[in-house]
Write a structure and sequence with these properties.
Layout lengths: L7 H8 L16 H4 L16 H16 L3 H12 L5 H10 L2 H7 L6 H9 L3 E3 L2 E2 L12 E4 L7 H8 L10 E4 L4 E4 L14 H8 L2
Length: 208
């Protein structure tokens, strides 16, 4: 499967904001964005004419890179969102938030979405008692996500358990660190999704 293999920090610099792709490194002084808060490349410091298309494209790229989704899959999520009731942009964000790798990250069981994706792919999680190793798997209301019993002693989960509560958790899910479970109370509304993206610009881009 195709995947991005370049430097994650360049993505943050390209979008001119932290996307928190490297876990704790993003909060420390070693974060490259702190010393070089301008786009990468020879002309990164130059002025770019911000056309309507460019603003829309950048919002799409920002959302896609935040959740670690490739273009084809992201477009598929948009086309699905169009067919569902509600505002298309908000439905799109709800789809992205309900991915299993994002749920694991939001619950604090992984330092980044990349790490969460790897843990899921290696088969360390159960959803309603069934092993799921597909990061794009979408959780539903009242689902129970839990770490497999034989995986609980692994270093990432021991660390996650020790650091429980150190990171804010959205109200739509409830981590239970003592059992390494995550309860999905409901799917998130736009008001509780803290992703800094203007989803309406993405809708405008794709609807042309």
């Amino acid at each position: 499967m195709a995947r991005y293999t370049g430097a994650d920090c360049k993505r943050c610099r390209r979008e001119k904001m932290k996307l928190f792709l490297k876990g704790s490194k993003c909060d420390g002084p070693k974060c490259p964005f702190e010393s070089r808060p301008f786009p990468p490349g020879q002309h990164g410091r130059g002025r770019t004419k911000e056309t309507e298309y460019l603003l829309q494209h950048r919002e799409k790229q920002k959302a896609r890179r935040t959740y670690g989704v490739l273009e084809k899959q992201f477009r598929g999520y948009y086309e699905e969102a169009v067919t569902k009731p509600g505002k298309t942009g908000e439905v799109l964000l709800q789809i992205l938030e309900s991915r299993l790798d994002n749920v694991v990250y939001r619950a604090g069981y992984a330092a980044s979405r990349d790490m969460a994706r790897q843990l899921v792919k290696h088969g360390h999680f159960l959803v309603n008692g069934v092993k799921v190793d597909i990061p794009s798997y979408r959780v539903k209301e009242h689902d129970i996500v839990q770490v497999r019993e034989k995986s609980k002693e692994m270093t990432p989960f021991v660390v996650a358990q020790a650091q429980a509560g150190s990171r804010p958790t959205p109200a739509w899910l409830e981590p239970i660190p003592s059992d390494m479970k995550i309860l999905i109370h409901t799917l998130p509304a736009r008001g509780v999704i803290d992703t800094q993206v203007q989803e309406q610009l993405i809708v405008e881009l794709y609807s042309k």
